[in-house]
Amino acid sequence: SAVISQKPSRDICQRGTSLTIQCQVDSQVTMMFWYRQQPGQSLTLIATANQGSEATYESGFVIDKFPISRPNLTFSTLTVSNMSPEDSSIYLCSAERAIEQFFGPGTRLTVL
Amino acid sequence: EDKVVQSPLSLVVHEGDTVTLNCSYEVTNFRSLLWYKQEKKAPTFLFMLTSSGIEKKSGRLSSILDKKELFSILNITATQTGDSAIYLCAVVDGGATNKLIFGTGTLLAVQP
């Protein structure tokens, strides 16, 4: 399995501000993914973070709101921009290795 | 539109009971089906199923896939309070990115 760390683990933010979440994998992986889990709901894929190219966003998610970086094969960031209370959620990073996907511990974001 | 549906949405049982969780899917580019257990934030991997009719087992948990009828079940025998969690089913979309399409989850509560 892969060991994935995320920071911050949680944050409380004011509306209109932005937060960048970092995801670090213990070894090189090809694919990294960012998911959102809103209260009481299942996981929804935001985007696939591709190394060396722009992220691929799912329907309903746009780069201006959720810019993603993938500077190398072990690291990615997700920024939640111009936050509103509706962005309060758990944000999870995952990585694929040998067709299995492993998840980071998640970032619990509360927007006031 | 691709979708993954789990049932029941929630379930309350007593210790020692056996439970069966269901997952049905309609995914155009099916590659594999994964089961996860989510207790706090990060889902933890349980099983990956790619072939029909082959049961995967891990202790009191087992799972099987039916690719003809497009469903999977997760069985937990002799349940314990530590089995209380959300159980997530996800299908790997074997397109360009191997993204996961998650079901709604089943909330299992095991009472002493």
Compact description:
The complex is a heterodimer of chains A (112) and B (112). Chain A has 112 residues and is mainly β.
Range of helix content of chain A: under 10%
Q: In total, how many beta strands of chain B? A: 11
Instruction: Give Rg of chain A in angstroms.
Output: 13 Å
Q: What Rg of chain B, in angstroms, do the CA atoms define? A: 14 Å
Explain this structure to me?
The complex is a heterodimer of chains A (112) and B (112). Chain A is mainly beta. Helices cover 0% and strands 54% of the residues of chain A. In chain A, the strands form two sheets. In chain A, strands 2, 4, 5, 6, 9, 10 and 11 form a seven-stranded mixed beta sheet that branches. Helices cover 0% and strands 59% of the residues of chain B. Chain B is globular and about 45 Å long. In chain B, strand 4 (30-38) and strand 5 (44-49) form a beta hairpin. Chain B is mostly beta strands. In chain B, strands 2, 4, 5, 9, 10 and 11 form a six-stranded mixed beta sheet that branches. Chain B has a five-stranded antiparallel beta sheet with strand order 1-3-8-7-6, with no helix packed on it.
Keywords:
heterodimer, A: 112 residues, mainly beta, 7-stranded mixed beta sheet, 4-stranded antiparallel beta sheet, 11 strands, globular, B: 112 residues, 6-stranded mixed beta sheet, 5-stranded antiparallel beta sheet, 0% helix
